[in-house]
Amino acid sequence: MTSTTYTSRVFSLETMDVPGGTETILRGGRHLFPLLPQAFAGVRRIGVIGWGPQGRAQALNLRDSLAGADIRVAVGLRPGSASAADARAHGFTEENGTLGDWLAVTADSDLVILLIADAALAAHHQEIFAALKPSAVIGLSHGFLLGHLRETGGGFPPGHGVIAVCPKGMGDSVRRLYRQGEDINGAGINSSYAVHADPDGRATDLALGWSVALGSPYTFRTTLDSEYLSDIVGERAILLGAVHGIVESLYTRARLVGDDPVAAYEKTCENITGPIARTISHSGMRAVREGLDATGRDVFDRAYTATYASAREIVAEIYDEVADGTELRSVILAERRLGSRPMSEIGGSPMWSVGDEVHARRGERDLPVEPFTAGVFVATMTAQIDEFAERGHPWSEIVNESVIEAVDSLLPYMHARDVAHMVDNCSRTARLGARRWGPRFQSAYGQIAFPAAEHPADEALLTAFETHPVHEALAAAAKLRPSVDISVS
Predict the structure, then answer these.
(1) Could you confirm whether the keyword tRNA-binding appears in this record (predicted)?
(2) What percent of the chain clears pLDDT 90, i.e. is strictly above it?
């Protein structure tokens, strides 16, 4: 079990009640920005290595939050990087010393935040480690490198602090909500933090300062191991892979019972990314069921109890394969096999052809929650929550990786684009995982769960859902939620 108690010499911390105990958390906000120089004591230059979605967002947020402080944020890119022009357009330039070769920026930085793609990090981390200045701190926003080092018998270089700050949302969300926070104090994406190595005793405050500078409304403690497991499992399950499998299977079911393509899309994909996500975001998981009439609740109940067991089996299998390194090895093998070749897109099935038509109909009416779709989705979310709880993850991590990241970051983007677009445009690691596991959820639901939903609901499973401790944990987290929804154009 991850210890969630910690202290800070810089920030005032709070205690949050969670099922079975309490967690120490840091409530963020722009009023804390004047404390950042103290939190970053000893850091004069922060090197952000990479300019993908997270690299761009974090470099910009750090630069804006540290404006006026004697701390420079620089971006390091590989030679010939196609991202250099965009970095320059955002004000990072060679002329002002804030853009340069990745190894040169690494060598000149006191905190080196590694945000290049997982495959590139696996291939080039030794070069980066060799370039580090003495006592420089290594920063991560993902635990993939730890998994890779363990698989290959490597390790982090001795004498260097290793910390992680992991925003619970995609890079574009990290930046958009930070910008919205210019008018609404504290608007941003929650983050976890971890201290993996702390040779000089400053790692916790450094990590907390980094999280505050990103705009995190609240920051909770985890470990790099726990973050890696929950993050990789989550993106293969309820955050991405399972969502794709759910909507494909539900769309097929809707078409088989006679719905036209537009109606089938609205009952499935549009419903999950729209009314179901909004209800959970603002009122919690239980509110989805409570908002239905008696007939709708019966449909929800049958779908929920028919789906839960299949979902739990797959989530447990994903977790085991992430924990023993199988999933990581599959990603590395796929990267070697694919090389620079693009992956084929998954948005070719019939349902995605009507997405534009459905999006154009928005505003004509408010779609109600579709009870069968809601039951399937909430059952899958609960299955992931239960797997994480059984494996000993802290409650803040459970609700952020299983619920908050989904409904406050990813699903709004899926609503604006569509689920297939998200799968085809996410990180390579997430995309490979979604393509591998999404079809597993799709087939299990079509072959096992949906036929079982013709039978009466399992009352014991419904009671477990109604009395689930996650509702208490989500209510506690909701008190820290900014009063703003992400704006996605």
Answers:
(1) no
(2) 84
For the segment 351-362, the average pLDDT, to the nearest whole number, is 92
Please report the pLDDT score of residue 206 as a whole number. 98
Other Cβ atoms within 10 Å of 338 Cβ, number: 13
CA-wise closest residue to 164 among 100, 111, 87:
111
C-alpha to C-alpha distance for 232 and 209, rounded to whole angstroms:
25
User: Residue 357: phi, psi to the nearest 5?
Assistant: -65, -40
- Partners of 25 in the beta sheet? 14, 220
Asked if 349 and 323 sit in the same domain, the reply is yes
Q: What is the mean pLDDT of the chain?
A: 94
CATH code, domain carrying 408: 1.10.1040.10
pLDDT digits (tens, 9 = 90+) for 468-489: 999 999 999 999 888 788 878 6
Extract the annotated binding site. 231, 235
Instruction: Kindly list the distances between the CA atom of residue 425 and the CA atoms of 344, 420, 470, in Å, as whole numbers in the listed order.
Output: 11, 9, 31
Residues at the annotated binding site for Mg(2+)? 231, 235
Query: Can you give the pLDDT at residue 483?
Result: 79
On whether both 415 and 473 belong to a single domain, the answer is yes
Residues 396 and 314 in one domain: yes
pLDDT confidence tier of residue 347, bands split at 50, 70 and 90: confident
Under a CB-based contact definition with an 8 Å cutoff, are residues 171 and 56 in contact?
yes
pLDDT at position 345: 86
- Are 420 and 266 spatial neighbours (Cβ–Cβ below 8 Å)? no
243 Cβ contact list (under 8 Å, min separation 6) = 272, 377, 406, 411, 414, 419, 438
Number of folded domains that form the chain: 2
* Residues ≥6 apart with Cβ < 8 Å to 386: 312
If asked whether residues 302 and 338 sit together in one domain, one would say yes
Domain hosting 312: range is 233-478
pLDDT of residue 485: 84
In the chain, % helix, strand, coil (3-state, to 5) comes to 55, 10, 30
Active-site amino acid positions: 142
Q: Is 203 among the domain residues?
A: yes
Which range (87-91, 374-378, 420-424) has the least confidence?
Answer: 420-424
pLDDT at 1: 52
342, 473: one domain: yes
Instruction: Identify the CATH number of the domain in which residue 71 sits.
Output: 3.40.50.720
> Are residues 25 and 87 located together in one domain of the fold?
yes
Whole-number pLDDT of residue 2? 62
